Amino acid sequence: MELEVSSIEKNSLFKNKKLEKINKIQLKKHVDNIFSKKSSDMLGWLDLVDISDKELEEIECFGARVRKRFKNFVVLGIGGSALGVKTIKHAFFDSIHKKENIKTYVCDNIDSDGFLSLITKLDIKKTVFNVITKSGSTSETLAQMSIVLKLFKDKKIKISDHIIVTTTKGNELYNFAVENGMKVFDIPKDVGGRFSVLSSVGLVPCAIMGLDIKALIYGAKEIKENAKKIDYTNLSYLSAYINFTGLVGGLTSLVFMPYSDRLSLTCDYFAQLWAESLGKRYDKKGEEIYAGQTPIKFLGVTDQHSQLQLYTEGPKDKLFMFLKVKENNFDIKLDYEIPFVKKLNNINLSKLFDSEYNATRLSLSVLNKPNYSIVIDRIDERNMGMLIFYLQMTTAFMGEMMNINAYDQNGVEQSKIYTKASLGFDGLEKQKELIESFIKNQKFIGC
Ligand code: PA5
Predict the structure, then answer these.
(1) 295 alpha-carbon distance from chain centroid
(2) In a structure prediction context, what are the per-residue pLDDT tens digits for the chain, which is 447 residues long?
(3) Helices marked H in 92-234
(4) Which of 11, 120, 203, 215 could form a disulfide with 382 if both were Cys (CB 3.0 to 4.6 A apart)?
(5) Ligand 1 mean position to 134 CA, how many Å?
(6) 276: Cβ below 6 Å to ligand 1?
């Protein structure tokens, strides 16, 4: 993995700040805070890459057994319990790269149109579900599970054979799963949802899909080692430093721009990491700051034809983070001569793709819009592991620089509480009143 930063170094916001001259005292402080776990008690995700080969092999064997037995595999989860797996699945299977060993679906919404249209068309005798929820109490995931349990019950199918539960040891869901003889995987208490993809949350589904989870972990490990370096070759620190400098300089949005169909969902994965970890009302001292940098999703080249106009000629409040893959799996020569576009003849499709990537970077640079690129060699499990860990580390360093707690999500919890209150859960009577009066006082204007 490399960062291409020349456009950043030439940008007026960054001038006088040669990246090589990054403040090493600050860098060391941030690295120490994170790796000594002083900064938070939710840094267990750093240790996930230290899983032994033996443990990985056990997960691989479990995955192989499941794959052999079932035709369909459905993940039920939301947020951090779904986005990592969804991103990886998309990179390897929704694209044309690998033949799917088991038909896999990630259900991270409860819109009944979407969920039911899938569930009702599956042959559930040949389907295995993985219910993933760190807290074990997320309404969306439990509602999905309830629908599935009922389906099995109606068809008199033994649920323990068809449901795998991934949650935190000792919670009510964990106990329910054990009592019902389901296979249960534990999520460590000190690993938060959006940082959990390299735990059983992601490893079990990846093993079931037949991916090389060792390579995934080894790739992540390389970035973990790199993130301890006390110089500007610490890539995730460098990224956070650029993003933070941008934020302080008024770049309140960060556009994440993979130039890769296979990596298009890294946008969603990154958006959650960046938004939920860094959008914070209070800093660590308890002062109200309402901080954050809005992540924006962009797919190259597609969105050049929808969003780029705003980014070039619109307000100077955005930083641009490209993601480029050096080697594609496939390429094709354009060798049907269309008479009125001769220059398109005899070139490879990848040449056009790369030209557009470079043209977009230049279009932003000439207008003094700060941008840089993350470049990976190819899309395989090792590089995916590197990318995931790099994005997590960048988020963690950014949290340090902003002096906020990157691991809580009170804003999300509040909405979960109001949902439960409106359904009449015990102990939430006040919130129930509040939500009822909010709904009663809505004003509609129609036509
Ligand atoms: O990152 C997070 O903590 C959240 O996005 C959670 O993953 C999400 O709210 C789902 O929570 P749970 O895994 O407890 O069902």
Answers:
(1) 12
(2) 999 998 998 898 887 667 888 899 999 999 999 999 988 999 999 999 999 999 999 999 999 999 999 999 999 999 999 999 999 999 998 766 667 889 999 999 999 999 999 999 999 999 999 999 999 999 999 999 999 999 999 999 999 999 999 999 999 999 999 999 999 999 999 999 999 999 999 999 999 999 999 999 999 999 999 999 999 999 999 999 999 999 999 999 999 999 999 999 999 999 999 999 999 999 999 999 999 999 999 999 999 999 999 999 999 999 999 999 999 888 899 998 888 988 888 899 999 999 999 999 999 999 999 999 999 999 999 999 999 999 999 999 999 999 999 999 998 888 889 999 999 999 999 999 999 999 999 989 998
(3) 112-119, 139-154, 172-179, 200-209, 213-226
(4) 215
(5) 6
(6) yes
Contact of 42 with 192, CB cutoff 8 Å: yes
Count of beta carbons in the 10 Å neighbourhood of residue 432: 16
DSSP string of 159-184, one letter each residue: GGGTEEEEE-TTSHHHHHHHHTT-EE
Ligand 1 within 6 A of CB of 277 = no
Is residue 368 within 8 Å of 316, Cβ to Cβ?
yes
The amino acid occupying position 287 is E
What is the sign, positive or negative, of the torsion defined by CA atoms of 196, 199, 201, 203?
positive
- Distance of CA 80 from the midpoint of ligand 1 (Å): 5
Non-local CB neighbours of 444 within 8 Å, separated by 6+ positions? none
Q: Which two tokens stand for residue 31?
A: 């690295």
| Residues 423/424/430/434 CA torsion (nearest 10 deg) | 30
